[in-house]
Amino acid sequence: MSNAFRDLLRKVGSGSHTSKDLSREEAALATRMMLLQEATPAQIGAFMIAHRIKRPTGEELAGMLDAYEQLGPCLQPIAADCPTLVLGIPYDGRSRTAPVSPLTTLILTAAGCPVVLHGGRRMPTKEGLPLAELWQGLGVDWTGLALEQTQQVFEQTRLGFVYLPNHFPLAEGLVPYREQIGKRPPFATIELFWCPYAGESIVVSGFVHPPTEGMAQTAFALRGVHRFMTVKGLEGSCDLPRDRTCIVGVNHPATDPTFTRLHLHPRDYGFAGEEVPLLSTSELLAQMQQVLQGMPCELMEAVVWNAGFYLWQCGLCSSLETGFADARSLLTSGQALKKLAELKTAIGAFDVAYSTRFSSSNRSSL
């Protein structure tokens, strides 16, 4: 048992009247001790549930992010004409609405905007459809790459995916606790704010509950993250809704010294409609292939709505309307489909290289 961790646990877990917030340094220490399994399983589980009940502060989340930065992976900077977009999407996936972020990122990278995604396998408690499975269904398997290989794919295609089980096994080691406590711990919030990229970036954090946005603002300010967006998206993701007003917070000191709020009404741009339901993975993948082939459908409208917005926010378009036009053109001209083929080739090259090395070593041992 760790006596040092017990003191931190006692501080957050003393009840509604006597519990205290951790300092940034204390939160970083607690997170490091959990990631490194220096705390016992009982202590880790108790901390997670106690911290959820108390509710984390922005300062505590800044400290937890400090620990992630110290112990976790990070893709290195690449040259580009605009900052890299880092999308913070809930790791426990989607269960009700069709996610469009894979197609959005194909459009963005085809336009020259680098994108970094991060996530894991099916994650408790929701166990929804995660990004990694969607990419596998499109023929792009990120799950077998080492971090160095992901970096090479990122440099070649402008798209990188930090996959938790391979690239951050310390954090993956805490996943079973989520299932055992039956609730999302504050680590689920950290994943929305985490930026596993070392260069100039725009961090986009999806959220559901308004307090999450306030915590993001505090944590980013303490950590010196000046360029970020918060999106009240579908199921807490970065996907903009079409059946209601889109609420987006933008922090861009170069254009506005204050945190600004955007209220985008889809009907004003001709995109109002019902959200595309997530009926099955196979049906969604078939719809995605139709979109990539330039075939009009409701999912295409959702993709254009999202990709056009992000093209505009990344500075690749002078207006939102131009963003929509460019996004649709990149789909119908086949550029997004070409980017998907490029990704398949880049990742497939590692499979070929592995097979060649394996065969050579077998022959030499015979």
Q: What's the quick description here?
A:
The chain has 16 helices and 7 strands. With 366 residues, the chain is of the alpha/beta class. The protein has 2 domains: 3-55, no CATH class; 84-337, 3-Layer(aba) Sandwich (Pyrimidine Nucleoside Phosphorylase, Chain A, domain 2).
What does this structure look like?
- By secondary structure, the chain is of the alpha/beta class.
- The protein folds into 2 domains: 3-55, no CATH class; 84-337, Nucleoside phosphorylase/phosphoribosyltransferase catalytic domain (Pyrimidine Nucleoside Phosphorylase, Chain A, domain 2), CATH 3.40.1030.10.
- It is built from 16 helices and 7 strands.
- The chain has helices at 3-12, 24-35, 41-54, 58-71, 101-110, 131-137, 147-157, 164-167, 169-172, 175-181, 187-193, 210-223, 281-292, 298-313, 320-332, 335-365, and strands spanning 84-88, 115-119, 159-163, 201-206, 228-231, 246-251, 260-264.
- Strands 3-2-1-4-5-6-7 form a 7-stranded mixed sheet, sandwiched between helices.
- The protein is globular, with a radius of gyration of 21 Å.
- The relative contact order is 0.13.
- The model is unreliable at 354-366 (pLDDT under 50).
Q: So what's the overall shape? A: globular
Nearest-integer average pLDDT:
94
CATH architecture of the largest domain: 3-Layer(aba) Sandwich
Strand order of the largest sheet: 3-2-1-4-5-6-7
Find the structural class using helix and strand composition. alpha/beta
Helices, by number, come to 16
Largest sheet, described in full? 7 strands, mixed
Helix content: 40-55%
The CATH topology annotation of the largest domain reads as: Pyrimidine Nucleoside Phosphorylase, Chain A, domain 2
